Structure formats: structure tokens, C-alpha cells
């Protein structure tokens, strides 16, 4: 079965083709969840480095778009074609994936995911003040996302 991935490159994330492609992807993603019901998120920001519940993945992709380079959905059931160059790329990518999974902040992001999962991901136009949990928490969260050595 060939998977239509044309929605990945669409800029208009509100057009029917994008929504149809996103829904197709979500159906595939539902079959590739871990014990906690989370799957890799291929949005522009997460780039399959973080796992979220399926509704959060839907919201991320809808709001941010697909990572353009995620053409072979290896985290969602596809396998690499038997090509020497692809195998070289795969071994390099897997090694960076292992390093990313050892990120000590990953646990914090999982906790935040669990808290945020209770919110409706389809609600739009929420003011910044309504989403702030606590100024001290926000400062810690921003600090956790700041590069120690930029560049």
C-alpha cells in the first residue's frame, strides 16, 4: 500500500487536502503508540524527538506543520528502502536519536504533556495570560529550553 504524503509540503494547513492527509497520518500513528499511548511527533518543532499522545501530535502538526524531511515514516511503521545511502543516513540518524532520548529534560516534557493533555487541543485564540500556569514555572520552563552554549 502506498501512503500519500503530499500533505507534508502543503503550506495551507487549513485546506481539505492537508486535513485529509493529517487524518490519514493520525490513523497510522494510532497503530504506533508506546505503553503510555504516546507516539513520535513529526511536527516542525518536535522532529520525532519527542513522544506525545495522538491528540497532541494532531494539534502540533495542524498548528506547526510536518517536518519536511520526514519522507520515510520510520517511526510510524515504514522501513527504509534497501539503498546504501539510506542505510548510512539511517545509522547516523539513529545515533542522534539515542542521544536525544538520553536528554534529562525529557521527563519534564512528558510531565508537561500529561498536564496539557487535559486541555482541548482544538481551542484557538487563547490569551497568553490564560495559558500561563505560574510565572516561576514559566521562567524555569524557558530556562530549560535555553541553549547552554548557543551555536
TrEMBL record:
Residues 8-78 form the Transposase-associated domain. It holds the Pfam family Transpos_assoc. It comes from the Eukaryota. InterPro entries: Transpos_assoc. This is Transposase-associated domain-containing protein.
